[in-house]
Design goal:
With 417 residues, this protein is an alpha+beta fold. It contains 19 helices and twelve strands. The longest helix has 22 residues. The structure holds protoporphyrin IX containing FE (HEM). The site of protoporphyrin IX containing FE has 25 residues, from helix 14, helix 15 and helix 19.
Length: 417
C-alpha cells in the first residue's frame, strides 16, 4: 500500500470509469481508488467499495438494501414510464425483505440442483452442435467470430431449455434479450433505454402467452413450475419480471465468461494444452477467469440507516457501489492479483455476488463453461486468434462483442467427447 498522497480524486476516477476509455481499462482506475482505502467516500451520499473483505461483508449485510422501487423514486422518479426498468425492478434482484425471500424461494423451486444437473447431457449435445456449426463457418482456416457463432448462442439455448422456451423462438430471443439487457446498465444510458423499452414490451407479451399455454399443459420446466405456484404467491407481473430476469441475467454474462475463457486460453497456450489434456483443470480455470475478468464489474446497495461497515462509517441514505472487479484483484486477498493463474488456491471470486442475492444461475454458467472449453479446444487443436478482439463499451457489463478465431486446417468431421 502506498504511503504517498493519492494521485487523483475518487470522483475524477469514477467519472473516468463510466466513460471511455475507463470502461475499457478499468483495472488501473481501481488501483487509483484503492489508494484512498478499501471503502472510499466519493461525495456525500456516494461511496465505493474496492476491497474483497469489504465487498463480501456489504453483500452479506442485511442492513444494506438493493436499489428497489423506493430508492429509484429518489434518483429517477420517471422510472415507471420505462417498461424496461419496471420489468427489472419487479424482479427479485431489485427486491428487499420480505418480498425478496418469497420470490427467491418460488423461483429456486423451479431451479433445483436436480433440474440443473439433469441438463448436463443436453448441454453437451448443444455444445457439440454448436461446434459443428463453428467447423462449418470456419472451414479451411476462414476466420470465424467465436462470440456470434458460439458464446452468444450457448447460454440462450441452455436457459431456454431450462425455462421451457421452444427452440424455434430462440433466434428472436437472442436479439430481443440483447436489447432488454441494455436496461441492466440502469439509468446511466437513458438514450438507449427506448430500445430496451420496446424489447421489454414484446418480451412481456411473449411470456404472458407462454405462461397461459403452460397452465393447462405443464411440462418439466421452470415456466410450468412458476405458472403453477399460484397467482396468490407470484402475481402475473412478478412472474413475467422474474422470467425476464432469468433469461437476460444469464445471457450476456455467460457469453462474456465464455469469450474471456477462450481469449485467455489463446493468450496462454500452455494453459490451453492443459485444458485439452487434464480432465478437471477447467474447474479452476473457469474460477480464475471469473476472478480475472468479472462479467459483472459492479453492483450496488444503499444504507437505509446509519451503520458501520468493517470499521467504516456509512451515513443513512448512502449509496454503495460494490466494485466486484476490484475486489477480485484486491492484493490483500490475492497475491499478484493482475497475474492470470488458475493454479492459485482458494479462488472464490465475488463475480456471482454473495449473501441473499447470490446468483441463482452460478452453477449453470459454471457448468456451461467447464464443459465447453475443453471440448472446444480438443475439437480444434490448432485454434488461434485471427484478429483483435472487440470489447463491449460498457463498464458494469464487461465482455467481448467479437472474438475472431481461426480453427486451423485439421478439422475432425464431427464433435467427439
Ligand atoms: C457468468 C455468468 C453470470 C454472472 C457473472 C452473474 C452475476 C450475478 C451477480 C453479480 C448477481 C448478484 C447481484 C447483486 O447481488 O446485486 C447475480 C444475481 C442473479 N443472477 Fe446471475 N450471473 C451469471 C449467470 C446467471 C445465469 C445463467 C442466470 C439464470 C439462469 C442468472 C440469474 C441470476 C438471478 C435470478 C439473480 C438474482 C438473485 C437474487 O436477487 O436473489 N445469472 N448474478
Amino acid at each position: 500500500m502506498t504511503e504517498s498522497a493519492p494521485r487523483q480524486s475518487p470522483l475524477a476516477t469514477i467519472r473516468e470509469l463510466v466513460g471511455s476509455p475507463g470502461r475499457t481499462h478499468p483495472y488501473p482506475r481501481y488501483e487509483l481508488l484503492r489508494e484512498h482505502g478499501a471503502v472510499v467516500a466519493v461525495r456525500p451520499g456516494l461511496m465505493v467499495v474496492v476491497g474483497y473483505a469489504e465487498c463480501d461483508a456489504a453483500l452479506r449485510d442485511s442492513r444494506l438494501r438493493v436499489q428497489d422501487g423506493l430508492s429509484y423514486d429518489a434518483i429517477y422518479p420517471d422510472w415507471r414510464e420505462h417498461p424496461a426498468l419496471r420489468g427489472y425492478i419487479d424482479s427479485m434482484l431489485y427486491r428487499n425483505p420480505p418480498d425478496h425471500a418469497r420470490m427467491r424461494r418460488l423461483v429456486s423451486s423451479g431451479f433445483t440442483p436436480r433440474r440443473v444437473n439433469g441438463l448436463r447431457p443436453a448441454i453437451e449435445q448443444l455444445i457439440d452442435r454448436l461446434l459443428d456449426r463453428l467447423a462449418e463457418a470456419g472451414g479451411a482456416g476462414a476466420p470465424v467470430d467465436f462470440i456470434a457463432e458460439f458464446a452468444s448462442r450457448l447460454p440462450i439455448a441452455v436457459i431456454s431449455a431450462l425455462l421451457g422456451v421452444p427452440e424455434q423462438d430462440q433466434a428472436w430471443f437472442r436479439r430481443i434479450a440483447a436489447d432488454v439487457t441494455i436496461a441492466l446498465e440502469g439509468i446511466t444510458n437513458l438514450d438507449a433505454l427506448s430500445v430496451a423499452d420496446a424489447a421489454m414490451r414484446d418480451l412481456s407479451a411473449y411470456f404472458v402467452a407462454l405462461i397461459e399455454r403452460r397452465r393447462p399443459e405443464p411440462a418439466d420446466d421452470v415456466i410450468s413450475v412458476l405458472a403453477h405456484s399460484g397467482v396468490e404467491r407470484l402475481n402475473q407481473q412478478e412472474l413475467v419480471a422474474n422470467m425476464m430476469l432469468l433469461l437476460t441475467a444469464g445471457f450476456e454474462t455467460t457469453s462474456f465468461l465464455l469469450g474471456h475463457c477462450l481469449l485467455l486460453a489463446c493468450q496462454h497456450p500452455d494453459l490451453a494444452r492443459r485444458l485439452r489434456a487434464e480432465p478437471g483443470f477447467s474447474v479452476n480455470y473457469v474460477e480464475e477467469t471469473l476472478r480475472f475478468e468479472a462479467p459483472v464489474q459492479a453492483t450496488s446497495r444503499w444504507a437505509a440507516t446509519e451503520l458501520r461497515l468493517l470499521g467504516h462509517a456509512v451515513p443513512a441514505g448512502t449509496k454503495l457501489v460494490l466494485i466486484l472487479g476490484a475486489a477480485n484483484r484486491d492484493p490483500r486477498r490475492f497475491a499478484d492479483p493482475d497475474r492470470f493463474d488458475p493454479d492459485r488456491g482458494d479462488i472464490q471470486p465475488l463475480s456471482f455476488g454473495a449473501g441473499s442475492h447470490f446468483c441463482l444461475g452460478a452453477p449453470l454458467s459454471r457448468m456451461e463453461a467447464q464443459i465447453a472449453l475443453p471440448r472446444l479446444l480438443r475439437r480444434f487443436p490448432e485454434l488461434a486468434l485471427a484478429g483483435a478482439p472487440v470489447r463491449r463499451d460498457t463498464w458494469v457489463g464487461r465482455g467481448l462483442d467479437e472474438l475472431p478465431i481461426s480453427l486451423g486446417q485439421k478439422l475432425p468431421a464431427r464433435a467427439g467427447a
